[in-house]
Automatic annotation (TrEMBL):
Domain Solute-binding protein family 3/N-terminal per the UniProt entry, residue ranges: 23-262
Protein name stated in the entry: Transporter substrate-binding domain-containing protein
Keywords: Signal
Signal peptide feature range: 1-21
Keyword Signal annotated: yes
Amino acid sequence: MNRVHALLLLLFSLAMCQAGAATVQACADQAEMPPFVYAERVHGQRSGQVVGASVDLLNLIGARHGWQVQVQLLPWARCLALVADHRVALALNIGQADATASKLLLSDAYFTMHNVYFYSRRARPQGIHLRQLADVHRYHLCGLGGYRFEAYGIATADVDRGATIGYEQLIGKLHLGRCDLFIDSRETMAGQYLINPTLRGMLVDGTLVSQPLPGSPLRELYFGVAASGAGAAQLLRTINAGLARLDKTKELDKLLAHYLED
């Protein structure tokens, strides 16, 4: 190793030590993704405090290095652009498709979502039974406006999204027979209990049925950092080492249980 290289490494190490005492800035989708990341509710009202299992997981990793994470909820495209431009250190709960499109590097996967489909017992008392993913095309599939469905192995163009802006509307369309089913993840729907009391009642009244979505690709969650820069590369190594260590004690399962146990 030559002297110039050694000096650069020393300066980089010193910079990381100084940065280690600071807060690491991160961002996530403003649409929220409970229980992984969402704005805490106080007396039913959305607060400015961002919480969730992904936030807690990063703080556990950072505790060993003297930093903590501060998360902003932003429009998703803006969040990804800020990370790519080194103006925010990392993005939470990113998937492979978004990382590729935004030219971000991914951490090791820290959670695999369980994809499910929902139908209405009122409109479909005989039930809907999918044997393979292609069976979806035999039904009128609906979804939330602005969302994409390629991550499920389904073309977005095949989904009736319209102006549907919330799960209440989506479930209402099922009950009215205006569509047959919609798809989402088990964890995301369970997390709605944390932020939406109205939806909570709709999920437990026995008329909305969920089943595993057969043949659907795995939807893994990652942390994303900029594709260039020594600081981003070091942060990624730190996160991956922390994930490996915490995976041995199933720490994320414990964090999720903390949010979903109620």
